[in-house]
Amino acid sequence: MNLSKLLTIGAVALSFAAGNALGQDEKAKKQAEIRKVTQASLQKFYKAKPELKGDVEKASGYAVLTTYGLSFIIGGAGGKGIAYDNKTKKEVFMHLAQASAGAQVGIAETETLFVFPTQKALDNFVDKGWEASGTAGVQAGAAGKSVGAAGGATQDTLYYTLTKNGLQVGVAIAGTKVWKDKELN
């Protein structure tokens, strides 16, 4: 094998290795940012409703997801977060998407805390995802609590919502879907 072929093969191998290292570094940065946002959100929930801290600590696990959305008759939102297993200390990065249609208008940044009293509820959320549908009302920096969810797998899940910024007004049919983030896990 001549020297030019050897140098070409070496350059290609080096570029693949550098690209992979850069990709891993970018993944670590994204994970760190989501962890930071998740912890800040969790502290906001505890401040708004202090008894949540005990509920989260006693639960099998929890998830915190932050979404950004816009609506005018038809709405949509998307976001990311982490599901955390209190027993194993394992975290799973998650995606969230929402779609809605109805008499609505607004723009908002929303945080949602899911509390899983049982291991089965947490496992179903992480492994099968989560889906819900229903109606929406007025949200403006308020905390709310809902028990249960449409989509049988998570009937024993508690979830809480904080609207960080913005205002959402209206009544709409809405759907939410949560699933594992393949890129960050």
Description:
By secondary structure, this protein is of the alpha+beta class. The chain has one domain (45-180). Helices cover 34% and strands 46% of the residues. The protein has 3 helices and 5 strands, in the order H-H-E-E-H-E-E-E. The chain has helices spanning 3-48, 52-58, 119-128; strands at residues 61-85, 91-116, 130-135, 143-147, 158-180. Strands 1, 2, 3, 4 and 5 form a 5-stranded antiparallel β-sheet that branches. A hairpin with a 5-residue loop joins strand 1 and strand 2. The N and C termini lie far apart (41 Å). Residues 10-18 and 135-154 have low confidence and may be disordered.
Mean pLDDT: 76
- Tell me, what's the shape? globular
User: What portion of the residues fall into strands of 2 or more residues?
Assistant: over 45%
What percent of the residues sit in helical stretches (DSSP H or I)?
A: 25-40%
How many extended strands? Answer: 5
Sheet with most strands: 5 strands, antiparallel
Radius of gyration: 20 Å
Task: Return the structural class.
Answer: alpha+beta
What is the N-to-C order of secondary-structure elements (H for helix, E for strand)? HHEEHEEE
Instruction: Note poorly predicted spans.
Output: 10-18, 135-154
Q: For the record, give the distance between the C-alpha atoms at the N and C termini, rounded to a whole number.
A: 41 Å
Taken together, the total number of domains comes to: 1
Task: Enumerate how many helices there are, as a single number.
Answer: 3
